[in-house]
Write a structure and sequence with these properties.
The complex is a heterodimer of chains A (176) and B (404). Chain A is an alpha+beta fold and 176 residues long. Chain A has 2 domains: 2-34; 39-171, 3-layer Sandwich (Rieske Iron-sulfur Protein), CATH 2.102.10.10. Chain A is built from 5 helices and 11 strands; from the N terminus they run ααβββααββββββββα. The relative contact order of chain A is 0.14. The mean pLDDT of chain A is 84. Chain B is mainly alpha-helical. Chain B folds into 2 domains: 16-297, Up-down Bundle (Cytochrome Bc1 Complex, Chain C); 304-404, no CATH class. Helix content of chain B is 65%, strand content 1%. Chain B has helices at 10-18, 20-29, 43-62, 72-83, 87-115, 123-145, 150-161, 171-178, 185-215, 229-237, 249-274, 304-310, 315-328, 332-335, 349-369, 374-399; strands at residues 32-34, 246-248. In chain B, helix 5 packs antiparallel against helix 6 (123-145), helix 12 (304-310) packs across helix 15 and helix 15 packs antiparallel against helix 16. The longest helix of chain B is centred in the middle third of the chain and has 31 residues, at 185-215. The radius of gyration of chain B is 24 Å and the shape is globular. The model of chain B has no long low-confidence stretch (mean pLDDT 93). Chain A binds chain B through residues 30, 33-36, 39, 43, 59, 61, 63-66, 103, 106-111, 124-127, 139-142, 176, and chain B through 154, 157-158, 161-162, 166-167, 169, 175-182, 184, 186, 190, 290-297, 311, 313-316, 318, 371-373, 377.
Amino acid sequence: MKNSSRRGFMGKAFGAVAGIGAVGSLVAMKKSWDPLPSVKAAGFTTLDMSIYEENELVTEKWRGKPVFVLKLTSDMLSKIKDKKNDMDRLIKVGDSYFMVTLGLCTHLGCIPGYNPADQTFLCACHGGMYDVTGDVTKAPPPRGLDIPPFKIDGNKLVLGETGPEFIAMKENGITL
Amino acid sequence: MAHFEKATSIHDWFNQRLAVDAVNRVMMTEYWIPKNINFLWAMGMVLVITFALLLVSGIFLLMYYQPNVDTAFYSVNYTIMREVDFGWLWRHVHGVAASVVFLIIYIHMFTGIYYGSYKKGREMIWISGMLLFVAFSAEAFSGYMLPWGQMSYWAGMVITNLFAGGSLHADGLVEWIRGDYVPAQAFLNRFFMLHVLLIPIAIMGLIGLHFASLRIPHVNNQDGEEIDFDAESKKYLNGDKAGSKVMRFANDFMSKDMMVVGIYLIFFFYLVFYHYDFAMDAVNFDPADGLKTPAHIYPEWYFLWSYEILRPFSTNIGLIAFAFAQVIFVLLPFLDRSPNTVAANRRGLFGIWFWAMLVDMIVLTSMGKLPPEGIFSSIGLIAALTFIGLWIVLPFITKMEKKV
């Protein structure tokens, strides 16, 4: 009896030591899988917005992801100027309006293609479609193309920094 | 200390130390297999042999493969394919085996479903088998990343995005899995580790569990007959070999098993030498490019059925349907409420259910390969709904089943 209670104590003591060790090692394992600081630090892209041509999609790169930049024509703008939701998705730099979004389908992350004649985006993976503001027009994507954090700096756009216009978009539910 | 005598032979020397005779008896000569079975019962051994082929070819590939985003593609397509003597052989064996192993797994699974080999004490065989299916799926996916071609990259992008959980937007989890915002060096390195170490260890452990789970309920037979293995084996050992319903695992059963394996290997190496291209997607011969999605992204043929269940729905419903398809087969022993353990053709409605499920999965597989447009989209949607419907009706039709 005396022996078995001593064994019981030793078992519990070992359990406590092993438990602390197990939790500690799980924390270390989780943290080892996190993105490295160097990966996180390389996260800013500056775009000169004066170089883009109207209705010509340019794909830039930010954090390894494609970013669509489309300068809207006055024709496109006249079609949507009364729709607040559509206008809110655009970024105004100088006198021009731009669609700047991540070029990844919000369904499962394929890159949609742009057709300048129809002025639509089509994702070949699962058939999702978007309009020139990046808003979704055909399922399965659950929402419009996401807009990356940006800050307007004169006629430059800094991706990765959070400016007041981006905060407004987030608050209006335009982007995530 | 145990008592050892001077050995009379090498066999005796080992026998005293490792009890090789007893092990051989328990594992081989007195492990009893029913006689009333057919060639479909050889698929387990075919899978063991295919796994061995994957392991050996993988070891040779591992000696030249470089898990680096700048060099991975060329280490496979240049170094292994052109420089290494017989490097092409290991790659084609590995690629073909990775594809064919799923064909055999599906045959093995549907054989089990047809003959009711997941019931009456055989539940753990089924469950450990489905865990093996999951582990093999993870192994296939992680291996598909390694050549770092366009399909590797984009399959990696799409599949890891599934973990965002649709509207849950768990982007942090996706980035944690990748170790980056997009699949990059950290991603390739960790999937390399998973493919060559962690998942193979899990698979080997699960194979052990799968075999162990077979030991007590024994192998099923064509009529689902409950055999008294003690009585039948005694009859066999007493000399009435013809009258006994069982035979030895080795060499009786093994001789037929290896006959099937021989035919299979001829078919397998025919594919390796003359038709390896079916296991190699042309798109994956372009190096990974994060700024260009291929026109159509589709998985390897063995994942098409579950991919097609994901595709016709909006994101959240699609994810739920996909998750349903992934786990539902595991629950088969508990959803089948019938007391009968016999072949499906003697079980009335369940017989129809079996063939409907098989045909539905073939339809899903074919539609998954086609672009999601027009009529194919509709057929895919109907087949996906049929799949879910079949599982919902299963408990009811088996509950109504009469005792055979």
